[in-house]
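TOPIC: backbone geometry
CONTENTS: sequence, structure tokens:
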Amino acid sequence: VVEEGYAERPSQKNTSWTEDKEKAYKENVKENATTLRFTQQGVSKVIYPRIFGVKKAKDA
């Protein structure tokens, strides 16, 4: 998740989005949140403000 990132969910108009893709997307979002939380906990107070507003672990 960190190195590759994950694809964003397409708009509701896209009919090629399947339940399997939705399940994988939600799992990726959970993994990303966990990774980002651990990253934020592991950095010093000097570096933390730089990564405070990011939404994806890859961006941190």
The CA atoms of residues 21 and 27 lie 10 Å apart. The longest helix spans residues 19-42. The chain has two helices and no strands.
